[in-house]
User: What shape does this take?
Amino acid sequence: MNRYVVKNQKKLALGYTTGSCAAAASKAAAATLLTGQPVRQVRLMTPKGIELLLDIEDLTWTSDGVCCAVRKDAGDDPDITHGMLIYAKVRTISQGICMDGGEGIGRVTRPGLAQPVGTAAINPGPRRQIVQALEEVAAACGYTGGFSVEISIPRGEELAAHTFNPHLGIVGGLSILGTSGIVEPMSEQALIDTIHLDIDTRYAAGERILLLCPGNYGEEFARDRLGLDIARGVKCSNFIGEALDYAVYRGFSGVLLVGHAGKLIKLAAGIFQTHSAYADARQEIFASHAALCGASSDMVCALMDAVTVDACLEILRQARMDRQVLDSISHKILAHLTRRTSVRSGRSFAVEYVIFTNTYGVLMQTDGAVSCVQMRREQENRQ
Assistant: This one.
């Protein structure tokens, strides 16, 4: 693709995700199968709203379908799958869309991940992209039957050994990922500079309580569940500490932090750079606070073996200890946030947060979070 962002005075190329590659390959294979004519290029509209025109490689007819590939382009983002061919093999079935992973696609072996145990590690976003692409082809060709699609990545199992997949319980290959369908380059200092600039614009607009969301999930929750205008917020990625420090420096009176527990739970251990490459203490946080609340050694061990926050919550819910443990964790998160802001800055700084998961909804929030959300809504309506 021929799109760029400018970060830290550098022009960096955007790329597209493995999910977009899989969807485009599926679209080309299905169109070739239904029309009998080889498809060499496809147009694909990504969830981000950017249209891609992608070349199709290695198109082959099989005994019962068509297989073809799209080459992954990560732009200027360092990505282990850059340059890899993402394959889709499509055949017709009587109805519905049946999706699976083949060579080089990991399998989920532990509960709590985006897909059920035993299924291919093709995340929900890419699954929706693939289904949409196949439905477009069917509609264009007047086809009323269904499709079976198998996604594969040659050498995927070998490459997966250099990712977090084995740690997460995804075995045998890579995951098909992508929320927006587009890969944006991640230059750390450039990203921090961008966050600072974004905070500057919110301050210049007259805001004094800053809305911070670490990522897409936080933004979506703030918009859909809290009714907030995320265009007036700042996405801080994993740099929560940097964003808080700069908000204090810039003169804000406080922050409203809205984010998924997978990231924000780490604040209970004083971890303010939440990328897993720096630290990942989610299980340790749950286990230690459960122990403080009187959990058995067996439960503590089970929490340490859990893969995700949702898996930990399920263990605690079955023991009816979830509220007690979450309250303990929440108090620790607030203590670390207060120490980072008010104590270190030497002035009053309001810290409110809403922490959630997609499965369980709101898990933890400060006493003033509801009124803070309402205040922002009223302010947005006035403006």
In short: Residues 188-382 form one domain. The mean pLDDT is 92. The chain has 13 helices and 18 strands.
